[in-house]
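# step 3/5: fold
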Amino acid sequence: MATKYPVLWFMGLSAAGKSTLSTTLEERLAGLGWPVMRLDADELRQGLNQGLGYSESDREENIRRAAHVARLLAGHTTVLAAFITPYIKMREIFREILPDAILIYVKCPVEECVRRDPKGLYQRALSGTIPTFTGVSDTFEEPTNANLVIDTSHATVEQAVDAIVEYCQSRGLWDRPLSPELHLRLTPDVWERLQEAAQMAGIDSVSDYLVRIAEEMVADAPGALGQGGR
């Protein structure tokens, strides 16, 4: 199924910089007037994927569900998704659902990721508190088919985001700023109504409200996600 807007899928080790790059890119695109939404693995695990563990099958299911959500959202907005995606099989699942997505390998030596360790996860993994952790006790299979490789051990955040924007613009994406009223055909009146609907639903932002809608659509679609773990 072709999507109207691009999906950029950031993969790499924990602490490689996936979330940092996707968040910075989100801010830049929004500033240029492009519709954009970011999907973060940690956030999805608190909601749609809350019941999934970290077995290989559960992690595959996590990627499958996230890819389906990204595909639904890409009918309306650019999607930036940040997931470790450590196995080749996961990437094959992802490609089946989103064949036209841009796969970005956020590369960083595990030693540098351990040094950064913003959430303390590597320390816990090395001490044995986390029994299965990518880069320590579980493998990260080196990607061979990424559209773009960004080495964050050498590039600054701004340099990395510049490279991503340049790559996408060379393929006809984001080649000009858009005025806010052109977003997804969302006029100010429609945007205001979305804000009101989000407030009525007790949700802080329109982005989170649209994610909720996408999750409900996926949940209601017969056979769209199925059962089982990722």
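# step 4/5: annotate
The two ends are 22 Å apart (CA to CA).
# step 5/5: archive (pending)
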